[in-house]
What we know:
The chain is 63% helix and 3% strand. With 139 residues, the protein is mostly helical.
Amino acid sequence: xxxxxxxxxxxxxxxxxxxxxxxxxxxxxxxxxxxxxxxxxxxxxxxxxxxxxxxxxxxxxxxxxxxxxxxxxxxxxxxxxxxxxxxxxxxxxxxxxxxxxxxxxxxxxxxxxxxxxxxxxxxxxxxxxxxxxxxxxxx
Length: 139
């Protein structure tokens, strides 16, 4: 059956029109091709569903309350950051509730650690020995 559809496809690529006598063969070829494509689509959907199930099992989604405790921020702040795309957050189509992945939020917290603007005692001592003050001394 596939060879018939391949022959028909090759035929239609070289000619723009079919005669009335060629129509039954063309319909049969197209029907076979549609059936084969339908089987392939069903198979691909099954593979995709299996992949989605595997990926869902390895991801630990959490709700807004847990996200608040991890980030130490209010719900409104977290919602705003999620809407702006500044915080990794997910929504299922048609769902109102935001979901978060715990590991991603922990990485955000680790990545946003700021370096202290206050000089260490050793840095202050080194500046005094040089006889200079740091540029932001007056600030």
